[in-house]
UniProtKB/TrEMBL annotation:
Pfam families named in the record: FAA_hydrolase (PF01557), Rv2993c-like_N (PF10370)
Coiled coil spans: none
EC number: 4.3.2.3
Matching InterPro entries: Fumarylacetoacetase-like_C, Fumarylacetoacetase_C_sf, Rv2993c-like_N
GO molecular function annotations of the record: acetylpyruvate hydrolase activity; isomerase activity; metal ion binding; ureidoglycolate lyase activity
Name of the protein in question: Ureidoglycolate lyase
Residue ranges of domain Fumarylacetoacetase-like C-terminal in the record: 66-264
GO BP term (any one): carboxylic acid metabolic process
Annotated SUPFAM superfamilies: FAH
Annotated organism of origin: Acidipropionibacterium virtanenii
KW Lyase (keyword) present: yes
Domain Rv2993c-like N-terminal: 1-60
Keyword Protease: no
UniProt keyword annotations, A-Z: Lyase, Metal-binding
Length: 266
């Protein structure tokens, strides 16, 4: 199931179930409106339906408390920046004010001169959980979405910690929707492709994670409580690089979707 958060023309934000033409024959892509917040549940169909082309997609989830990032979780990415692969997950936080959705602009602050894309698989937490054993990680997951862990690389090295480098407004695009039909095993075998102005700049697979999804959930929940709607960014493959105002970044994850955003000046 694909769950989107959207605004219909002249309407208010709502959640809906995305029905793609590829899944339903000759019908156009549509979104069936549901009531309530699917992460918090329960929900119900209203009977209303919109063509997907006629609505504006929003970030599919606004984390209630936090976005948890994982650094250097792909060995080749760690190496390309001259870093060692960490023995334990390297955790940082992004505020929920950094979250934007499909086709929203990534704003390049004037105080950075080296803004990078980082295409990633994101895990959406579905329940309050603490001290989750790896073998029970599936129970903690609501679904998956696509992320771009936007990073001011010059600030990351200059500050010595990553709050400004990764926490600015608009630095966490999520979308285009959440998918709930993937198991952890399936999510651990997905191709990730990032394109900059249509040119492939990252190509990897979630199989390459140093610390797999169950370990990330278990490790993070060992020292902080995870809440429904929290998001874990699972790391990025090799190939990160600069993106500049006017350029468009697309992050595609097989079986999940394609997230697209354009960079603008502040």
């Amino acid at each position: 199931m694909r769950i989107a958060r959207f605004v219909p023309t002249g309407g208010d934000p709502a959640f809906g179930i995305v029905e793609l033409a590829a899944d339903q024959g000759d019908h156009p892509d549509t979104v069936a409106v549901i009531t309530g917040d699917p992460v918090a549940g329960p929900v119900q169909y209203t009977g209303a339906r919109h063509d997907l082309a006629d609505v504006r997609l929003l970030a599919p989830v606004i984390p209630r408390s936090k976005v948890v990032g994982v650094g250097r979780n792909y060995a080749e990415h760690a190496a390309e920046l001259g870093n060692e692969t960490p023995a334990e997950p390297l955790i940082f936080l992004k505020p929920n004010t950094s979250v934007i959705g499909q086709d929203e602009a990534v704003i390049k602050p004037a105080f950075t001169h080296d803004l990078h894309y980082e295409g990633e698989l994101a895990v959406v937490i579905g329940r309050i959980c603490k001290d989750v054993p790896p073998e029970r990680a599936q129970e903690a997951i609501f679904g998956f979405t696509v992320a771009n862990d936007v990073t001011a690389r010059d600030l990351q090295s200059r500050d010595g910690q990553w709050t400004r480098a990764k926490g600015c407004d608009t630095f966490c695009p999520l979308g285009p929707w959440m998918v709930t039909h993937l198991s952890v095993a399936e999510a651990q075998n997905l191709a990730i492709t990032t394109r900059l102005d249509g040119q492939v700049v990252q190509r990897g697979t979630t199989r390459q994670m140093v610390h797999p999804i169950p370990e990330l959930i278990s490790y993070t929940s060992s020292f902080m409580t995870l809440l429904p709607g929290d998001v874990i960014l699972t790391g990025t493959p090799a190939g990160v690089g600069p993106m500049n105002p006017g350029q468009r970044v697309e992050v595609e994850i097989d079986g999940v979707g394609t997230l697209s955003n354009t960079v603008v000046e502040s």
